[in-house]
Design a protein that fits this description.
Length: 605
């Protein structure tokens, strides 16, 4: 029987040489059967984990600022930075998860290991929230002049350890949830490609469902029954998600690992620098590795990338030195065209990736300051029922529960007829639409905050919490375009063996966006404090009526507009690699392949 390690070793040479064989195996390392493994049925188990994991982490992250401020007694600006740093770390660690998955563990094993790590973090949070001796003495942070002890010592260590476990587990899970589900479909098959695009929308629907449940039911539980019960429910949701993942073990299509994904990338740079004095040939057919395209045409399992004219310096890594010797050059001195083109793709997507950072900085405000904004407003829905401020974030997901299926069933088929694209519009177009819409979320936030502040100071009136609903609705719509478009863009631009890592770059954008939010808050406070006669900055107080959150929102409006025009430039500059496309295999070829797999499976012990 062929195991994953043997299969991975077999593919490693092909991966480094640039001729990548598309092969999938079952949980025992045997070639998959088309009628048994993969498809939407297998992806549904992964979507189950997506929904329940999102439910668990969203319930913690979206209401974490209330817990940090009220229970851990950190100042408001520091509490906001702790939350944004926590969420930023979650997404930054997705790079680690993507690397471990593609290089050594595979998506399924990576998800299983770090899923349990995340579960341990939720349990530790619940234990600390339940035991009073593990927290600072109770104190009302909202009452001016009341001394409140900030969490210190071993209590702080326990709190930050729990956050680190949750961040590590969730971060390493996220890119693999997307890639394992997408691996259940074949990108080069027309029908499978349509289903792949549908899967990305289904994944976002599962994301919305988890978020909606977390922001309504779980946040309400946290408010009414305490954060300890809320954290315990998050742990239970995570456990259910892991059960869903395990339930699909027998039907998953798994991609074998191929060793370090950074080695082929490093080889390209080393080879190009080593041959920097060589002159690139005008005819790209003279570059090493173009002959593999002919080989791939003969085999439906091989995929190559065609040569492009960008970053011609890297093409020097493909120049084969003719010195009369029959000795083959080292992989660190001679690379294939496909290998070089993959590096070109990674470099080319960096500006697209960078343009989504401001977008996620806006998201950070909706999960921090907008929650506190809601806390200072009239939260009564009825005389006896108050809306938890964190639950406001559920408003866009209520809308998206209906909009995402409508987008998939109505908009995509119409757009598909017009554009001829399987996904209706291109991922880059989808990202751009979302970036443009996101700007108006901050316009709405700034206008409402100005009205709320003036009403509180001048009229002593408290606005209804529903005044801040539009900023959440607008951003939710923009996220449907940008978030899904970015994931689809990165996954479809990756070569076999790098899907998880490139998908992780999507989540890295979230990370940098939340880190940038922390930097902006600190920078704005420092600048505005030094220029203010009273010595107070826009965000330096624990009272929003004394702060100028509206001006901070207007700053983000300006940054978002500049970012959108920057994106227009880079998206027009970016060109998709003209990947070698082969015709779909005929029915005879499919039947022949199925018989070969069946024969292999029957002979395997």
């Amino acid at each position: 029987m062929m195991n994953w390690e043997e299969t991975g070793n077999k593919l490693k040479g092909e991966y480094v040489s640039g001729c990548v064989e598309e092969i999938s195996v079952d949980w025992r390392g045997r070639p998959c059967k088309p009628n048994k493994h993969g498809g939407m049925t297998s992806a549904a188990f992964v979507l189950g984990l997506q929904a329940f994991e999102m439910m668990a982490i969203a319930a913690v992250g979206n209401n974490l600022i209330t817990y940090v401020f009220s229970e851990m007694h950190f100042p408001l600006s520091k509490s906001a930075n702790i939350v944004t740093n926590f969420i930023g770390t979650v997404f930054l660690l997705s790079l680690l998860g993507g690397f471990l998955s593609d290089s050594y563990l595979g998506s399924f094993c990576t998800m299983l290991i770090f899923g349990f790590v995340e579960l341990m973090g939720f349990i530790l949070l619940a234990v600390q929230a339940h035991i009073p001796q593990l927290r600072p003495p109770h104190c009302n942070m909202g009452i001016a002049g009341e001394p409140c002890l900030e969490v210190k010592g071993y209590e702080a260590w326990i709190f930050f350890l729990a956050l680190c476990l949750v961040a590590l587990g969730s971060g390493c899970l996220k890119p693999n949830i997307i890639s394992l589900g997408a691996d259940q479909f074949q990108k080069d098959d027309t029908e499978q490609s349509k289903k792949l695009s549908t899967y990305f929308n289904c994944a976002y629907f599962a994301f919305c469902t988890g978020e909606l449940f977390a922001l309504t039911v779980l946040v309400w539980v946290q408010t009414q029954s305490g954060m300890d019960v809320g954290f315990a429910v998050s742990a239970a949701a995570m456990a259910v998600g892991l059960i869903s993942l395990l339930s699909g073990t027998l039907v998953y299509r798994n991609k074998p690992t191929r060793g370090s994904i950074f080695t082929p990338i490093a080889q390209v740079f080393v080879a190009a620098i080593t041959k920097r004095k060589q002159i690139c040939p005008s005819n790209s057919d003279m570059l090493h590795g173009n002959q593999n395209i002919e080989a791939s045409a003969a085999s439906p399992n091989l995929r190559n990338l065609l040569h492009t004219e960008k970053f011609r310096f890297l093409d020097k890594a493909c120049i084969k030195i003719q010195d009369g010797s029959r000795k083959s050059e080292s992989p660190w001195r001679l690379c294939s065209v496909t290998q070089v083109e993959q590096v070109k793709i990674i470099i080319s997507v960096v500006p697209i990736f960078a343009c989504t950072i401001i977008f996620n900085t806006i998201l950070a405000q909706l999960q921090t300051f907008s929650v506190q904004q809601g806390s200072s407003m009239n939260k009564h829905l009825t005389k006896n029922f108050q809306i938890p401020p964190a639950s406001l974030q559920s408003i866009p997901y209520i809308m998206l529960i209906f909009v995402v299926p409508l987008y998939e069933t109505a908009f995509v088929p119409i757009a598909r007829k017009v554009t001829g694209r399987d996904s209706g519009i291109s991922p880059l177009q989808r990202i751009g639409i979302g970036l443009f819409i996101a700007t108006f979320s901050m316009v709405s936030a700034a206008l409402v905050e100005n009205k709320r502040r003036n009403s509180a100071l001048n009229s002593n009136k408290t606005l209804s919490i529903f005044w801040i609903a539009p900023q959440f609705l607008i951003f939710g719509l923009s996220e449907m375009f940008t978030a899904v478009g970015l994931i689809e863009f990165f996954y479809k631009q990756s070569l076999e063996g790098m899907q998880s890592f490139l998908t992780a770059m999507t989540y890295c954008s979230y990370s940098f966006g939340f880190y940038l939010s922390s930097v902006l808050v600190s920078l704005v406070n420092n600048i505005t404090s030094s220029s203010s006669s009273s010595g107070g900055g826009w965000l330096s107080e624990n009272d929003l009526n004394k702060d100028r959150l509206d001006l901070f929102y207007w700053l983000l409006v300006g940054l978002s507009l500049m970012n959108f025009f920057n994106y227009l430039f880079w998206s027009s500059w970016y060109s998709y690699n003209p990947t070698f496309s082969r015709p779909s295999p005929t029915h005879d070829q499919q039947d022949h392949s199925s018989k070969q797999i069946e024969a292999y499976s029957n002979t395997a012990p």
